[in-house]
Design brief:
Blueprint: H1 5-10, E1 17-18, E2 21-22, H2 24-34, E3 54-62, H3 67-77, H4 80-83, E4 88-95, E5 101-108, H5 113-124, H6 126-136, E6 139-150, E7 169-176, H7 182-199, E8 206-210, E9 228-235, H8 238-248, E10 271-277
Antiparallel strand pairs: 1-2, 3-5, 3-6, 4-5, 4-10, 6-8, 7-9, 7-10, 8-9
Helix pairs in contact: 3-6, 5-6
Length: 284
């Protein structure tokens, strides 16, 4: 996060159709492309991000008309400068459903490396010190932050840049767990939901859950009382994702055998993010 504005003032992803219906063959073709990020040639930031164990999903609410200004500033000044100190920028995105929302992901080697990297960037990075006022001036709020850890060993979430595709979209689906044990929810997800994705050729590039470690850099607030489970995928176009989402909405019965202990996680509909990579986003 860049400091919340008040603190700054102080110091601061087209499936073809047949007769109007999506065919399994055409969906599989599109979904195979959607999983390209898993196997494409990669450019790992500092060669180390595949080993990172701490992740942040950051959603910033911006003043009207300021998103392009922040993206330009971020891409010019805040990617390499964060990577250099161990705060690895994985992806930067426009939220397709909110013109005033900027979303980005970054990662750290471990819980000890996170505060060290953040102190090095926010405390002494020339790029941040020179541009922090300009960056914070674009933001209404920057505290919508989830601190996460991997719950699987999927290889896809890395700072990689396969051949850029026109209209590429990333989706993030966030389940709010409340008091549900994340391991039990993950086990049910693997048993009941993931096989449906796999049958269609859809392969998440990341599955993450809330990190239960304390926020070791309290100058940057996080949503410490929100416990989540999320999965992320890459799609060749908005149409591909829309076709999949329409089919997924017809799925019935997959929660019928859910253990009673995880039912609270289904009381709230999952949050759905549709994200378009910015021009210099490492994830493309």
């Amino acid at each position: 996060m860049f400091y919340r504005l008040s603190l700054a003032k102080k110091d601061a992803m087209q499936i073809s159709t047949q007769n109007g219906r999506m065919t399994r063959r055409s969906f599989l073709v599109g979904a195979a492309v959607a999983s390209f990020a898993l196997n494409a040639p990669t450019r790992d930031v500092m060669g180390e991000t595949t080993k990172d164990t701490v992740f942040e999903l950051r959603q910033y609410t911006l003043y009207g008309g300021k998103r392009d200004a922040l993206i330009s500033l971020f891409e010019q000044n805040f990617i390499e400068s964060q990577d250099a100190v161990g705060a690895h920028v994985i992806g930067t995105f426009r939220d397709l459903d909110d013109p005033d929302r900027f979303v980005w992901l970054r990662s750290f080697r471990d819980t000890q490396a996170r505060p060290q990297a953040l102190e090095a960037f926010y405390g002494s990075s020339p790029a941040w010190l020179a541009h922090k006022k300009e960056a914070n001036a674009t933001m209404v709020d920057s505290d919508n932050v989830l601190l996460l850890r991997p719950i699987s060993t999927l290889p896809g979430l890395r700072s990689s840049a396969p051949t850029r595709g026109s209209g590429v979209l990333y989706s993030v689906t966030i389940y709010y767990l409340d008091g549900v044990d994340e391991a039990r929810f993950a086990a049910f997800f693997d048993q009941a939901f993931l096989p449906r994705l796999t049958a269609l050729g859809v392969h998440p590039i990341a599955i993450l859950t809330t990190s239960e470690t304390p926020n070791t850099f309290p100058r940057l607030p996080i949503r410490e009382h929100e416990r989540v489970f999320l999965w992320m995928a890459r799609w060749p176009s908005e149409e591909d994702y829309a076709s999949f989402a329409a089919q997924m909405r017809t799925w019935s019965g997959w929660r019928d055998k859910a253990p009673e202990a995880i039912l609270p996680a289904f009381m709230r509909k999952p949050e759905q993010l549709r994200l378009e990579p910015t021009p210099r986003s490492p994830l493309q």
